Amino acid sequence: MSEDNPGVKFPPPAIFLISILIGLGIHRYFPIAVVASALSTPLGAMLSIVAAGIALLGFRELGRHETTVRPDAAASSIVKTGPYRFTRNPLYVALSTLQLGIGLWTNNLWIVLMLIPAWILMTTQVIAREEAYLERAFGDEYLSYKRSVRRWI
What we know:
mainly alpha; 6 helices
C-alpha cells in the first residue's frame, strides 16, 4: 500500500549544510568579511539563538499536533499555532536564520550569499512539493491557511 506524501528527496537541513560548506570552501580562497570584526560574533550568536528558538517552537507545535517533522512523510494535520501563525515554514526560517548567523559569526560573506541558492532549492525542490501534497491531502483547509499565512515571513 502506497501512502501519499510530499515526495521530498533531499532533507532540508542537508541543503543548508551543503550551502554552508560551499561558503566555507569559497571563503578559504577568497575571504570577504560581512561586517566589522567586533560585530560578527555578537550578531552571529544572537541570530543563532533566535534560530534555535524558532526551531524549538516549531518542533513543539508539530509535537502538540502529533504530526511529522519529516518532509518525506505524510502529515496528519495542518498546524496553524505557534510560529505557524506567522510563517508556513518556521523550521526553514530557522535554518535560514541559522545559516545567516553562522555567516555573520564566521564573518563569511560567502555563507550569507549561499542562502540564495539554498532558498531556490528549498522553494523548488522542497516547499513546492510539500504545498502540492498538502493541497491534495487537506484541500480547502490548507488553501485557506495558505491564503492567510506567508510562505517565509
